[in-house]
Design brief:
By secondary structure, the chain is α/β, with parallel strands linked by helices. It folds into 2 domains: about 30-150 and about 235-280, Bacterial extracellular solute-binding protein, family 7 (D-Maltodextrin-Binding Protein, domain 2, 3-Layer(aba) Sandwich), CATH 3.40.190.170; about 155-235 and about 290-335, D-Maltodextrin-Binding Protein, domain 2 (3-Layer(aba) Sandwich), CATH 3.40.190.170. Helices cover about 50% and strands about 15% of the residues. It has helices at about 1-25, 40-55, 80-85, 105-110, 115-125, 130-140, 175-185, 195-200, 215-220, 245-250, 250-285, 295-315, 320-335, and strands spanning about 30-35, 60-65, 90, 140-150, 155, 170-175, 190, 210, 225-230, 235-245, 290-295. Helix 2 (about 40-55) runs antiparallel to helix 11. The longest helix is centred in the C-terminal third of the chain and has 35 residues, at about 250-285.
């Protein structure tokens, strides 16, 4: 009889523990996401859609509160604050953080490099570029996942650009390695967050900006610029950044959903972004707000020659950076656009 009573007590304890553990697993977790761009912009579509899908995939057990730019910190400080766990995740652009993480220049896409998302995808997932970028972010307690930004990423200006010399002496907003590109063309590079570009152009603080064509409509940039330059300098990427501690604190099943699901959610939003970018440029042209300038092939040849020293300068920063640049150089040879 005593043995039976003991067994019942132990069974009841185990059952109670299991119920409590199960209940704990079902507890709703709320993350905070810090935005780098206005919430209505195409860039933040990545974050809004990701939050929606993650909530669906986790059956409502992981919710994400999206904070507007500057809510928790300045855009330039997002990596620093995210590393410390002030918030859990962010959608951002690596060009803001090249001083802290040099590999973010490789992350965003180098000028005269990838011309399409499939080329970027190939470098990141198949050729080893992603390993280099993720390793660099991991040193700051962050997991990084890529998403496509503009398939058209070039000069938005208040003057026509039909040859590289047109940029000489002009003040151009350009981030990361693109600032060096502007300088190589004789311009002056200015770092301004995306949310401040409209007023900077309207007030004449800058003469133009390297910015993707989605901004012509989603931040009404077509109202303050007159010309957009093609072809693109590169297929650009943004990133979903997640604090590693926040990820590891999730129940195991949610952790798997977030870690694996994020890659494929961003593939969906990447295609949406590219479609929106093309539509934005077409609409701006059709409504008569913006004219397209085309750089001829001879100017593109000059651009590659001016860009190669920038690539080599990046490669000289560290063995890891050299490995990344070498991956990109080999890929450019393979696709018929050799840099060297």
């Amino acid at each position: 009889m005593k043995k039976a009573c003991c067994f019942i007590i132990v069974l009841a304890f185990v059952f109670s523990f299991s119920v409590n553990l199960h209940a704990a697993d079902k507890k709703v977790v709320t993350w905070k996401m810090q935005a780098s761009y206005p919430l209505g912009s195409t860039v933040m579509m990545h974050g809004i859609e990701w939050a929606k899908f993650i909530e669906q995939l986790t059956d409502g057990r992981l919710k994400v509160e999206i904070l507007p730019p500057g809510a928790m910190c300045a855009v330039q400080d997002i990596v620093t604050y995210l590393e410390k766990g002030v918030f859990d995740c962010a959608i951002s652009y690596g060009g803001f953080y090249t001083g802290l993480i040099p590999e973010t220049d490789l992350e965003i896409g180098l000028p005269m490099g990838h011309l399409s998302w499939d080329e970027y995808w190939d470098a990141y997932w198949n050729r080893g570029l992603g390993d280099i970028i993720r390793e660099a972010y991991a040193e700051h307690n962050i997991k990084q996942y890529p998403g496509a930004a503009g398939c058209y990423y070039n000069f938005n200006t208040n003057f026509p650009v039909t040859q590289l010399s047109d940029l000489q002496g002009k003040k151009i907003r350009a981030l990361g390695v693109y600032g060096k590109y502007v300088q190589a063309l004789g311009g002056s590079a200015v770092s301004i967050p995306g949310g401040e570009l409209y007023m900077a152009m309207k007030l004449g603080t800058i003469d133009g900006a390297i910015y993707d064509a989605s901004g012509l409509q989603d931040v009404k940039f077509h109202e303050v610029v007159k010309f957009y330059t093609l072809p693109t300098l590169a297929q650009i990427a943004v990133s979903m950044l997640i604090n590693k501690n926040s990820l590891e604190k999730l129940p195991p099943d949610l952790r798997v959903i977030v870690d694996n699901g994020t890659r494929f959610i961003l593939e969906d939003t990447s295609n949406r972004y590219i479609t929106a970018t093309k539509a934005s440029l077409n609409k701006s042209v059709n409504m008569g707000s913006v004219k397209i300038c085309y750089l001829p092939e001879e100017e593109l040849v000059k651009a590659r020659k001016l860009t190669l020293p920038i690539w080599d300068e990046l490669a000289a920063k560290s063995p890891r950076m050299k490995k990344g640049v070498d991956i990109l150089k080999q890929q450019m040879r393979d696709v018929g656009r050799p840099m060297d």
